[in-house]
């Protein structure tokens, strides 16, 4: 492990207690969050309305820090408590009455996405769900479903169950060629994989802090390609989305920045908490984090192969994010026993092993030793 990563490891107290390979579900929380919570508590105990001046600056500052982290300009990111709220609000910007009213999505989405778009069918949206094969999406098949009737392509970058990653470039090319927009759920890739929204050319990118970004719960974000901002007129809106919310006057127009995709009183504490992890990730840099992640996940796969487990996650580096999904007889019971004995992973139809920047290769080996030993018990 390089020196920067070793230093970072000390920032995560949870690692002193358990072997934590669960970042696809919830990332370890950095020590620095404690001070933020204490400061928040002090502010509440000595309350004055002036606290909002600092809070407002913290909120805007966090949004711009997220923007920088994904290669976007200031003012192009807004936050809210969860991804669903932001995607739903985005959905209220469109008209579903014309010829172009299809939302193309896939069966690899996190369950919130197809459920949400189904809801928009009452306004005329037509949802097209492109089926995957063996847990992977064939980009050609996806592109074939995108045509002049497509309003929006709403797809996940990395699958939440396997980490299988979509080649966004071809999807964005196809969508833009036929005049459709692309909204990417990058919850399982931002923080694990370097993301540059400008290079990708996506129109919208959504994610959240509490997995790979080492941030807080209730802390999701939406990036909007700046050229699109003036065109977005959300129906599900509110005073904080207005041009000058702090005048408390009637709202006449939306803010020119991504704040136009906010609603009411912002979730300040989650932004303050999430800033701690984001600053750690940014200081290490995504190329270092990705290189370490690939080393760790390659080790998981190698050990899984030796033990005869099925590796569901694709092998190619450019086809996988930060998690490795495994299948073997008794995997559900093994996952339960591992968690009970302090080897933290998650199970969603597959056992998922998710190392991050704060894990060491030795830890990955220790985890795999325990996993193999538990799996043997199932066979016996
Ligand atoms: C790919 C993906 N999208 C979305 C979510 C969560 O969405 P929300 O913030 O709306 O709960 C998760 C995980 O919880 C996820 O893995």
TrEMBL record:
Has UniProt tagged this entry with the keyword Nuclease?
no
Q: Which domain of life is it from?
A: Bacteria
Q: Which InterPro entries match?
A: Aminotrans_V_dom (IPR000192), PyrdxlP-dep_Trfase (IPR015424), PyrdxlP-dep_Trfase_major (IPR015421), PyrdxlP-dep_Trfase_small (IPR015422)
Give the transmembrane region(s): none
Q: Domain Aminotransferase class V: where?
A: 65-367
**UniProt keyword terms in alphabetical order:** Pyridoxal phosphate
Is the keyword RNA-binding assigned to this protein? no
Identify one Pfam family in the record: Aminotran_5
Report the Gene3D superfamilies cross-referenced here.
Aspartate Aminotransferase, domain 1, Type I PLP-dependent aspartate aminotransferase-like (Major domain)
Give the matching PANTHER family: CYSTEINE DESULFURASE (PTHR43586), CYSTEINE DESULFURASE 1, CHLOROPLASTIC (PTHR43586:SF8)
What's the name of the protein? Answer: Cysteine desulfurase
């Amino acid at each position: 492990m390089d020196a920067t990563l070793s230093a970072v490891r000390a920032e995560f107290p949870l690692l002193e207690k358990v072997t934590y390979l669960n970042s696809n579900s919830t990332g370890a929380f950095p020590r620095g969050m404690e001070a933020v919570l204490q400061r928040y508590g002090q502010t509440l105990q000595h309350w004055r309305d002036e606290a909002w001046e600092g809070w407002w600056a913290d909120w805007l500052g966090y949004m711009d820090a997220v923007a920088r982290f994904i290669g976007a300009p200031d003012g192009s990111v807004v936050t809210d408590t969860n991804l669903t709220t932001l995607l739903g609000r985005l959905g209220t910007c469109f008209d579903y009455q014309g010829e172009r009213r299809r939302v193309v999505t896939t069966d690899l989405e996190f369950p919130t996405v197809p459920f949400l778009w189904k809801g928009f069918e009452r306004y005329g949206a037509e949802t097209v769900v492109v089926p995957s094969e063996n847990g992977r999406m064939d980009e050609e098949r996806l592109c074939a479903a995108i045509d002049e009737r497509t309003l929006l392509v709403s797809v996940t970058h990395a699958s939440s169950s396997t980490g299988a990653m979509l080649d966004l470039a071809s999807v964005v090319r196809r969508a833009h060629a036929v005049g459709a927009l692309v909204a990417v759920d990058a919850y399982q890739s931002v923080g694990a994989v370097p993301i540059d929204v400008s290079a990708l050319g996506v129109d919208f990118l959504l994610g959240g802090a509490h997995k790979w970004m080492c941030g807080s719960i209730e802390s999701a974000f939406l990036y909007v390609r700046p050229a699109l901002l003036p065109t977005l007129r959300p129906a599900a809106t509110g005073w904080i989305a207005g041009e000058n919310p702090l005048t408390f006057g009637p709202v006449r127009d939306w803010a020119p920045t991504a704040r136009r995709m906010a609603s009411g009183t912002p979730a300040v504490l989650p932004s303050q908490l999430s800033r701690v992890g984001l600053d750690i990730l940014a200081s290490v840099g995504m190329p270092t984090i990705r290189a370490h992640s690939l080393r760790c996940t390659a080790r998981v796969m190698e050990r899984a192969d030796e033990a005869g487990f099925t590796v569901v996650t694709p092998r190619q580096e450019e086809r996988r994010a930060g998690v490795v999904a495994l299948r073997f007889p008794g995997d559900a019971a093994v996952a339960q026993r591992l968690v009970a004995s302090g080897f933290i992973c998650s199970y969603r139809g597959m056992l998922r092993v998710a190392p991050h920047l704060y894990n060491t290769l030795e830890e990955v080996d220790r985890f795999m030793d325990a996993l193999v030993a538990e799996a043997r018990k199932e066979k016996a």
